[in-house]
Amino acid sequence: MDHGGNLPKRRAVLAAGVGSAVLTAYSLAGACQSLVWNPLAAVPGATLGEIYAAMDAAGETLGAPRVIAWSAVGVALAVVGLIGTILERAPRARHVVAGYLALLVLAAPSHMFVAFTGGMGIADAFATSGGDHAPWGGMLYLASGLALLALLALALLRPAGWREKLRA
Questions:
Q1: CA distances, 128 to each of 43, 61, 120, 166 (Å)
Q2: How many whole angstroms separate alpha carbon 85 and alpha carbon 88?
Q3: Taking the CB of residue 7, how many other CB atoms lie within 10 A of it?
Q4: Would you call 81 exposed, middle or buried from its count of C-beta atoms within 10 A (0-12, 13-18, 19+)?
Q5: pLDDT digit string, tens, across residues 101-144
Q6: N or C terminus of the chain: which is more exposed, having fewer CB within 10 Å?
Q7: What CA–CA distance (Å, rounded) separates 34 from 67?
Q8: CB count, 10 Å around CB of 137?
Q9: String of DSSP letters for 25-45
């Protein structure tokens, strides 16, 4: 009977499961933001098909291949992190959490990079601004900002007894 001997590993795997779910959700939401929600918000009253057709006629693009690749990389990193944690003999939940938080922090600038083409395409095709028109882009960046704060807190707050371990 297991009396908690595997509790640290279970905590790490749970952290990886939650981190994977959040990173996957972020990746999918980022793709939807760039390819669906933002274009629909930028051109109210038009269907997505009409927006894509008008952009194509104007020689503009949303950069879908790059956005989809970005999203796929995010999902792949989430899965690799989870599998790596499961296969690790003695993973530490603190390290797993820090890794997923770092990925969420990096998701914002990388999303901004891949979304730039689509934003400028919308701006040029429809004579509007190239920024986010749908609120979900701001929510993604807020999530990354909160992940940065959590990562900083994790780095600054040491577990109990860390000073004694350093002296040993």
A1: 9, 15, 9, 58
A2: 5
A3: 11
A4: buried
A5: 999 999 999 999 999 999 999 999 999 987 889 999 999 999 99
A6: N
A7: 7
A8: 23
A9: HHHHHHHHIIIIIHHHHHSTT
Is the distance from CB of 54 to CB of 126 less than 8 angstroms? yes
CA separation for the pair 17, 35 (Å, rounded) = 27
Long-range contacts, stretch 157-166, CB < 8 angstroms, 24+ apart: 159/94
Distance CA 158, CA 32 (A): 38
In degrees, rounded to 5, the angle at the alpha carbon of residue 113 between the alpha carbons of residues 110 and 114 is 90
Helices and strands (DSSP H and E) totals, the chain: 7, 0
pLDDT in tens, 18-35: 999 999 999 999 999 999
Q: Which amino acid is at 135?
A: P
Residue identified by tokens 């194509």 is 56
pTM comes to: 0.88
Site of tokens 């429809």: 126
Report d(CA 146, CA 165) in Å as an integer: 30
